[in-house]
Design a protein that fits this description.
about 140 residues, mainly alpha, about 0% strand, transmembrane, DUF3618 domain-containing protein
Length: about 140
């Protein structure tokens, strides 16, 4: 028979011996599982890929936030440098576009057939684009 390890006391009864054997089996099973997990290259590669993907997502989010902040700073700087008449024209054009859009919405609600109203979002987007185009053409002519 082999000697017990120095850090474990010898069993005093058959029941204690069974408990030691069961505990040792359990510890051995855990050790074998750990070794199997370490040897599972595919699983480790998947775990690494997930970690790298999460890290890349976090970095992209941080870069996006920085880019948005920089763009906002630049927009504010440009806005501050614009002469007051240009700001007023821009505000007036925006207000006019809002009013035209509201008028178009009302006409739409009053006159559009039911089948056409079902595609409302696409048609409103087209109408908005048309209004913007008209305003840009007017601006260039009056410029």
């Amino acid at each position: 028979m082999t000697q017990p390890p120095h850090d474990e006391p010898t069993a005093g009864s058959p029941e204690e011996l069974r408990e030691q054997v069961e505990r040792t089996r359990h510890e051995l099973g855990d050790t074998v599982q750990e070794l199997a997990d370490r040897a599972d290259v595919k699983a480790r590669a998947r775990e690494k890929a997930v970690a790298v993907k999460e890290q890349a997502g976090q970095k992209a989010q941080a870069w996006r936030g920085q880019a948005m902040a920089k763009a906002s700073d630049v927009a504010h700087a440009v806005e501050e440098k614009l002469p007051e008449p240009v700001k007023q024209k821009g505000a007036a054009a925006a207000q006019g576009a809002k009013e035209k859009a509201a008028q178009a919405e009302q006409v739409w609600q009053d006159k559009a057939p039911e089948q056409v109203r079902d595609h409302r979002a696409a048609l409103l987007a087209g109408a908005g684009a048309l209004i913007v185009a008209v305003l840009l053409i007017r601006r260039r002519r009056n410029g």
